[in-house]
Amino acid sequence: MTSSNKKDIFKEIMRNYPTGVTIVTTINPSNHQPVGLTINSFTSVSLDPTLVLFCVDKASSSLSSFRDSGKFAIHVLASDQVKVCNVFASKNTNKFDLANYKISDRGLPIVESALGVMECKLINEIEAGDHFIFVGEVEHISLCQKEPLLYFRGKTGAISNEWVCS
Q1: At residue 165, does pLDDT exceed 60?
Q2: Would the pTM count as exceeding 0.85?
């Protein structure tokens, strides 16, 4: 198996693995502007202490902001947030002009109407291949009872009733 073939197969497997969709945000400490991007490389790590992680491509223009700010917010998106998901997945430089958000008491940009938001302090950064893994401790958390937004086979959408087992 060639390296190229392995990568193609890997990508096909991963696009067939349904995941939740999140937006991660922070503040750029040098210019105090909000920064954010859509990610699906997010997971819980520990309950005690409450830890989460997400991954950022080494080539991301947002990388230094997440590194230098020392804090971030993870937004688990709701099924009605496809538009904001697409905005934060784009290379658009004015993402926050196209989203409803506020600055939290902890100084983080919070995108409104998410299913859940976790405000975290950065506790570890790990280099892994072409990405960096950021581990954060959840310091503040909020939940809104909504249906989640999923990513599956290159598309985003709500959970279908066909997926629900009784």
Answers
A1: no
A2: yes
